[in-house]
Fold each of these.
Amino acid sequence: MDRIRIRGGNRLTGEISISGAKNAALPLMAASLLSDAPLTLGNLPHLADISTLASLLGVLGVEIAMEGDAPKGGHVGRVLTLHARKITSTTAPYDLVRQMRASILVLGGLVAREGVAKVSLPGGCAIGNRPVDLHLKGLEQLGAAIDVQGGYIEARAPKGLTGAHIVFPFVSVGATENLMIAATLARGETVLANAAREPEVVDLANCLVAMGAKIAGIGSGTLTIQGVTSLHGASHEVVPDRIETGTYALAAAMTGGDVELKGADPAQNEALFEKLREAGVRVTATEGGVRVTPGRGRVRGVDVMTEPYPGFPTDLQAQMMALMVIGSGVAMITETIFENRFMHVSELSRMGAEITVHGASAMVRGVKALAGAEVMATDLRASVSLVLAGLVAEGETIISRVYHLDRGYERLVEKLAACGADIERLSN
Ligand code: UD1
């Protein structure tokens, strides 16, 4: 298994191109199931999760063609055309679904278009229980009969789905996406109240509208969808990855670096940038993205609580903690979205961090220096926080189980090395 070796101490300087957002690309790909015409997605990141979903969609009958890099220059990734001319299977098998929880996103599109879907339950996950009850309850409200048996969810709506008023008891990104996808082809009006407002949800809604869906309230907590009988093809550019942006902004801040994040959208990261400024880091919007430069002296400890968008993202909690570990003073970091999302704490502690966890909160006492160590990646965002710590730790840090990083960070080693980090991937 590959590992990453970092020798800490280098300031990051230069430019990093921000890729398309993984969490936007996945639901957009799933939306291709809704139409028998092609959906072309530009600015797709090259990531393991994208390949996993492409394989799953292929099993369902979606023809997938890669058109290579778009000829626009700049930071445009690969262009993918997904053509669900005919759905040849309505079963999403366990061996593909278990690799990635977001596979559940095929459920809404399949049942809306075919009237039937059988999708493996995604199962456990390192960052908590993560049930799919909201997805299933919502589909039931849209008229589907749901049966969970032998580890599979079976949804049936032979006469099609019917619009409904669905109030989510709490905000769920995936359930909002799945039900929005399903409701586009339901008869009549669907209202999704207490819907997620994440930029990735907005991106999906905009793409569905480009495919002919009728959706009002995009970007708000209430989405109103008027069902249509069919959707057509469209071309859509995936939004920039705000989590990748935030991760590199934090990497720059940790190393006292000066980095421009090209292609980043500052409006999508306001919660993080506000906290960075409070901590004493300079963040400014530039013509092409965002620039992070050091303030005076050591970064200050600031308290952070994760919340649904536009609050501070849970997907940046581990990386923010890495910054606080070397800050001055104390920081209280509270995780409200997922239970058990502090797996990085024990690994950061092995590098010299002083962190005490009480329930959903972690108290971080800043230390002056970290020491390199052998550490283990446990999930996508936890593992990148170890990379950030390694960038400033004295000596060598070796991170194993790098496949977690491959799921969500495109060319991580190359992007950091180009800004001066002493980092390399070791294959064995
Ligand atoms: C998405 C993101 C993930 C991010 C998360 C929260 C993708 C592919 N993944 O995950 O990176 O960390 O949003 O911003 O976009 N829940 C239930 N029942 C459900 C659904 C969710 O109890 O049916 C709970 C979850 O366990 C969690 C909370 O709701 O505690 C929020 O989860 P949700 O927003 O659904 O996360 P995902 O869509 O899985």
Amino acid sequence: MQKEVVLSGIRSTGFLHLGNYFGAMRNYVRMQDDFDCYFFVADWHALTTHPDTKELRNSVLRVLAENIACGLDPEKACLYVQSHVPEIAELYMLLNMLAYKGELEKTTTFKDKVRLQPQNVNAGLLTYPVLMAADILVHRAFKVPVGKDQEQHLEMARNFAQRFNHRYGDVFPEPVAFNFGESLVKVPSLDGAGKMSKSENQMATLYLADDDELIRKKVMKAKSDSGPTEPNSDKPDYIENLFQLMRLVSKKETVDQFEADYNNCTIRYGDMKKQMAEDMVAFIAPIREKAAAIYADEKYLAEVMQTGAEKARKSAGATLALVREHMGLKYF
Ligand code: TYM
């Protein structure tokens, strides 16, 4: 039986963090045995916000190394770099004819980026969701493991697929955002203001490359207060975030104990943060060390990229042949 196709991507815009891991990469690793998986580094997408390419190569290699260190096996999943698959650019161009300026301008991430970089509102930024749809549809993928922040982009990919199928005939499945834990994940930042991010808010984000001391320092600085005064009271957002982060890496008994301490007003956030810092260190250190070794092995990474590109181009080429045929772009 043919396996269902899965695809996801990560932008090469900086160091990967706990949000990338728990929102996306953890699912990649779980899916690689049972699905036909394609995972890639979105280096073209990175250019929409990071036009300076001095760090791009390092960043691409690091994303690959960190994915492999987290358990992704290039022998099982196809691991490649977006710019090695020109078929994606062709599909992006064709899908652009089915994407309307108004809907692109209304996209939340576009509006956010306009606020963040008013000096560089480029067309790539506006058509970001179209390129993302091309990434997915080029392998006719159905399940797309992503964090909560990508939900709207997935909805747009479905719309573009639907429009194409309606106009030119059925070529694409309508892709869905996927997480094993059902609802999509958003890993909050340590300061309780927003989410962990590759390029913003770095002291409130835990990176997979952070050393032990830095992890401890960031966790200990996380916002807390002097504790509840009423038993069983609601948690303020920043405290709920701490619990949420702790649940990702600590044992259930540990979290339950702090929950109980919270509910009977005996919680000491200093102790909770110390425990969480140690559990974070225990989680991150082995990934960091493995990633550093893989990152240093450029020959191996080159092989991974080459093998991945070949497989991805084969699948993408087959889709493009179908697309051209359905669109009537065949003249002899
Ligand atoms: P990117 O590079 O911002 O993030 C990569 C993945 O990590 C998830 N993520 C998070 N999940 C939970 N909590 C967080 N704080 C958090 N921060 C990031 C993201 O949801 C994502 O799954 N547009 C995409 C890259 C992309 C893509 C694609 C993804 C390009 N083409 C096609 C899927 C399919 C992005 O910027 O991800």
Amino acid sequence: MEQNIKFPVVDLSQLNGEERDQTMALINEACENWGFFELVNHGLPHDLMDKVEKMTKEHYKKSMEQKFNDMLKSKGLEKLDTEVEDVDWESTFYLRHLPQSNLNDIPDMSDEYRTTMKDFAKRLENLAEDLLDLLCENLGLEKGYLKKVFHGTKGPTFGTKVSNYPSCPKPEMIKGLRAHTDAGGLILLFQDDKVSGLQLLKDDDWVDVPPLNYSIVINLGDQLEVITNGRYKSVMHRVVTQKEGNRMSIASFYNPGSDAEISPASSLVGKETEYPSFVFDDYMKLYAGVKFQPKEPRFEAMKNASAVTGLNPTAAVETF
Ligand code: OGA
Ligand code: NI
């Protein structure tokens, strides 16, 4: 496997100094060639990140581990004699922040964990909006363009998927999370700094996204591919399981609002575009049933709204 010698790491603090141009160029290069980059000096306090990690790991032990083990039993996954291709080896729960928070409806969270996650999410929301403007600058779009597109009538959708990928006795038999591209806009991931597992597909090779202390991994979803008319692309990624160690990952999805109208930005379209225009929620309805399939047929299906009505999402998975 190709190793991650050049995996793009962006020091956001350099945007304020002499290195600004190089940093903007590095972000652009990462968006064009990787669909992923890792941010350091992003402004999120390290003690807050420590607290989020500690509380998430405690919460897993207290409220999730037993459920995960019960799931293994009920699905007959304890032996793993043959390869499993329709289940993920992950334990997750979802928090929604925007347009309306559901934090108070999630069972088994202590008040302190709730408050900590609320603070963490607010800072990530601000970071996502700053990043969207950096993307606009690199794309020659006016400041605020992407935020405005994502706004729809109710503002963006912002949510967090809190995951743990427990150690797995036979990693070759099952993925932590099967390969997919993300449907939405910008994804901000706080991943375990010790246990690895996230990989992205680059030039037909699976490349590790290396754990890096206090970093936030950014990747781009299908909507940004459509809006940028393919100048930036969403990239396939997956999580592999590990024999040793429980991997924590907290993925926050900054997505368009449900009624946001998505289409390629006219300044990025030449004569014609191969990308569709649609309402974001219609895309999500389609995605729910075909998440683990390539994105190109999704884009094709969205070109014709009537094709979409004919599709029947099979899995009502909660996804952002
Ligand atoms: C996802 C995802 C990666 C991870 O939830 O879409 O890609 O490391 N997660 O959990
Ligand atoms: Ni993903």
Amino acid sequence: MPKNNDTYVCQSCGMVYSKWAGRCDSCGEWNSIELEQSEASPPGSHGAKSAGRGKSIELVSLKGEVAREPRLPTGNKEFDRAAGGGLVPGSALLIGGDPGVGKSTLLLQVAAGLATAGTKVAYISGEEAVAQIRLRAARLGLADAPVHLASATSLKDILATLKAEKPDVVIIDSIQTTWSDALPAAPGTVTQVRACAQELVRFAKGSDTVMLLVGHVTKDGQIAGPRVVEHMVDAVMYFESETGRAFRILRAVKNRFGAAHEIGVFEMTGKGLEEVSNPSRLFLSEHEKPVSGSAVFAGVEGTRPVLVEIQALVSQSSLGAPRRAVVGWDSARLSMLLAVLDTRCGLDFGRHDVFLNVAGGMRITEPAADLAAAAALASSLFDTPLPSETAIFGEVSLSAAIRPVPQTDARLNEAKKLGFHRAIAPANIPDRPSLKKFGALDDFVRWLKQI
Ligand code: TYD
Ligand code: MG
């Protein structure tokens, strides 16, 4: 008979149940639900009786003397940028990504950078043997960096070592290979991942150590042994790449000590990951002369402005139901733009195949890119190139209004820096030279038609 405080947890997605079931309702996995015995009664659970009364805690005012959290720069500018300006002592970070994307490479480079600058770094790998890591370090030209290296998977051993060695920064590669012998569950299961992460995070907080946890992501973009770790750590960063591309984006999706959505851009080369300080270069293509269907979007990723080319191809279709295909763009958002262009601006895409592609393998989620995508679509339909050296931004509403977007100045300044001296933008932003403003998409389409 299970005790009251026992719960059943899906080992695939982390969903918690009060009784066992053969199939997880949340992720659909079979036979993934296992009994998890809790050591103590969680607060508020039935039958939980705490011994004795709690002691009174001191309540204080918001205002008070606090030192600004010191930052430990890693020397890797792109990494620091994504982390919000360096590592904060006593914080825990999760770095997720597909197997093979370059997490171990990135962290070895970060470790070497920190160690060379005099920080005590322990790199503990459960995935590779010491010899393998040494080989990689030699290939990256980092063999001389004084990194403290170990290959281990037992949480108990790792914690004992860390307590004795007292490093400033610890890298655990990966959290899925770390296991605690106090639990019956197999390594890599939700139960193990959660327990190990909890212990490691607790150690980081108690000893002012920076804890960098590597986590492999499953194909649907979730960290296996999932979400459970995300809420325990101070920052979550994903290392992403497009298939067949050399560049990698380190994206902060949560950061207690900095801006979320900040990105660091890297290029995977034969000598490891190189920092890309001017990412717009990657996402713009060179055209000899202006081509129709190409629009340059002045975007912002986190706090960094990035110019990205959006390409559209609208071609006569022989199919009953014409094709709509997107790369780096949301297909629902394409449908919305086509509907607005059709209903409000009188453009007929009904007998055309429509392809929309974000150049360079970038993925755009900002609504501010609507106007640039609409411009690319209209430009391809009319077979009229957009004016050269022009950056575009603005959100399009269902009523075809072009709405203002945040960080106008950052966008315009980045565009100018890269030789885009003209811009097309929403109506209600301050005037600037060479700035063409539109309040409605149909006005823009009419203007485009006559150029
Ligand atoms: P790795 O860091 O092992 O990935 P992860 O830890 O995320 O699983 O990276 C492995 C890939 O990176 C591998 O396919 C080879 C490639 N790579 C290079 O292209 N250049 C290099 O200098 C290194 C070290 C790796
Ligand atoms: Mg690895």
